[in-house]
Every structure is written in structure tokens, then in C-alpha cells.
Design brief:
alpha/beta; eleven-stranded mixed sheet; 6 helices; 32% strand; elongated
Length: 250
Amino acid sequence: MPLSSGCAINKGTALAADFEKDWAGTADVVRIHTTKNNTLPFAGSSTGVLVLAEGTSADRVSERADELGDYVARHKKITGRITADGITFTVFADKGRTREVLALWRSLTVDDHVVNGDINDASRKATKRWRSEFTAADATGAMTVFKDMVSDGGRYRPLSGVASLKVSTGRDVLPGLSVETGFDGSLPTEAIAAYEAVTARHEVVGAGLYPDRLSIVVAEGADLADADEVARSAAPGLGAAVEVRSKGGG
């Protein structure tokens, strides 16, 4: 029986195969990745990612995004995504949302702070939501990117609707930092204040900053008791959710 997304038992698999066939040989596309979600017999969905050639111009990326937006408008069970210059983003049938994500993509790709990232749709019912995750070159860059994005600081084009955000350094980068909002966009205000207060007095080798908790690792030999006191004083609302330890395990 021929593989067709309209009548296939494993519809997610069929949709993925259709996506790969339909986009094969497209200009600028060097790889195609797909996922298959076979929920029930004759029901399912798929995500297709077009990986564009390194150095593809912003205008060409916009062209591919427009074409992919038209495609997902015709194929309701397919989510379309593009990877270009290390940033992967979701494309929408709604051209307004696609223009938004393209504007953010452009602003990110001209900034040396950002190494790679992902801008995804996290909408629920009638609420437009975004979930973005970025890797920064270093801890200073991670904090710069995070603060700019959550405050519309002007460096990066903002997204409308509720946006959750995570910015972190790579696994091998020291000092390491991960800072993120809640899913509802709530900010880690106290955690950031505590982190900055501790880094002003002690060498920090790693930290995780969240709206409801924080974890800070200071260098071995640092005054752990003082670092702990500074962090708790700067984040009184987090109470017992403040963790400060040393690299040596203290």
C-alpha cells in the first residue's frame, strides 16, 4: 500500500515522509530532520526541520520561512521549523508570528554573545506563548542576553505574548551560569540580585538562577559562610530555596 499521510495507519510517519519528499532538493536546504508522532491508528503529527546552509543570507532565510509557513498552513498536523546560523525557530501559518520570530532571529545572529539557540511555540488554547533557550559564550554574555530579552533592552527584537526564557553557558564553560524565567514568564529577580551580590565579593564557578530558587557554587577556598549570608540577605523571599556551596563540596 503506498505511503500517504491521508490514509496511512501510522500518520505521523507518513507525514514525516511527505515532508522529506516535498522539501528534498529545495535551495539552501542541506539537511532535513523529522519527528513522527503516531498517536492512534490513522491519527498523528510530525515536526519537520529544514537545516539551511551556513552563510545563507537573511533574505533567503526569510524566503524559506515564508514558503514553510504556507506549507504548514496547508498541512495542519505538521510543525515546520528552520535552523539557520545556529538558531532553530518555529515557522507559523500566521505570517505575523513568523515575522516576529524572524526579526528576533536576525537580531540574535548578529550578536557575538549568542552561540546557538531555539525559539519554539509553546501556545496553549488561545494564549500565544513562546519558549526560547539560548547558549551564550560566557556567563557575562548569558546575563546580558537574559536581561535584555526580559526587559526589551533594545539589543534583541521582543516577542509578543507570554514568553519563557532560558539562557545558559555551554557545559565546558567556566564560570557556568543558567538563568531562566518560569513558564509564565515570571522573573528570577531575587536570584539575580543574590548572584550579583555574591560575585561582587567571591569567585563564583557556577550558578543556576530561577524565580523560586537559586544555587551558587563558589570557588574552593572562598569564604562559604559569608557567601551564604550575602546570598540569603539579597534574596530573603526565597528562604530555604537558597543553596550556596563550594566547589570542594563544602
